[in-house]
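User: I'm curious whether this sequence folds into something compact or stays loose and floppy. Could you predict its structure so I can see for myself?
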Amino acid sequence: MALIVMKFGGSSVADSEKIKHVAGKIIARKKGGNKIVVVVSAPGDMTDDLITMSEKITAEPNPREMDMLLSTGEQVSISLLAMAIQSMGHSAVALTGPQAGILTDSEHLKARVEKIVPKKIFSFLEKNNIVIVAGFQGLNPNDDIATLGRGGSDLTAVALAAQMQANICEIYTDVEGVFTTDPRVVKDAKKIETISYEEMLEMAGSGAQVMQARSIEVAKKYGIEIHVRSTFSEKEGTFIVSEDKIGRKQMEALMVSAVTFDKNQVKFSLIDLPDIPGMAAKIFGSLAKLGINVDMIIQSAALDKKNDISFTVSKADLKKTQMKIDQLAKELKAHSVVCDEHVAKVSVVGIGMKSHAGVASKMFEILAKNGINIEMISTSEIKVSCVIDEVDLNKAVSELHKGFKLNKK
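Assistant: Here's the prediction. I'll summarize afterward.
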């Protein structure tokens, strides 16, 4: 008897008809002789709606109270889904994250899972229940509810699969799998049948919305096979597996597996900083203390004992970053601070880069040929990213997708 973790995103449980449809899919898997644990997100856009409600009350809500508010969305989903399954003649029980034994650190709004004690889940499974767990939430050391950040339900599902030694973790969404790029931007984007943890991690970190990056890290660490598939189709989706499970032929044939992009970027530049040791440490150390994740960094060559430092952060951290950087600019005697909210990041990702030279140069050539200026560059073993003007983003994605022949995959 296999243990399967099934996770359904907000679009899959957006209304009563979709909830009933999901209930039917779950029951079908149960009838196949499997033990089923289900993880569910908040319905539709409920999380965004709750954030909007809080903004009408205060511009700076208390993080603890925000977690209390945001956690309610998933509780709506689990209770309604349990009712739907029960109405179809099957046993189901809904559990919040804390009830399911998900324990986090003390950080609010982006807590990390420290451990899972799934005793209650196993107890209900032994009684032949389908167990439905609220994603995105857990219990912190202060006995307060804590949320896991955007996409946190993915992390809940993968972490449960790892702790409970599930046979597979199935991620159900409104698309049929992972694509070579966003089909809404490039119509001839192709579904990827199998992709490595490394590639998926780079894709998630560079803007792909399919899965949360932290969930992929956990899957890689514990060797959890993930199947990303559509809630509304029976077709196989995309399998996310270890690199050694992907055929060598595929690995060597493809330089690039996907083109990803991120519109959620802001670029800051500190102009004419004194060129002395310790400047970068002070700047990025101060941002780290505020919990601000810096993505790309570039420092110019020194001229007249001055240089510039530019970096990107998420738009969600814009206000916090602006306040801290304005303060640091005065302390460090920089000439000025420039903030550019009209940038975007485009990336090419693929494990084939390990054995193919010239991927970066080809990317730069494609962008140059289309009159697209590169403002910043970042590379890893299997990814090249460029920051460009946001007005050029769709063109860049389309031309890179075509230039690396992903439309013919």
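Summary: Residues 63-87 form the longest helix (25 residues). The radius of gyration is 23 Å.
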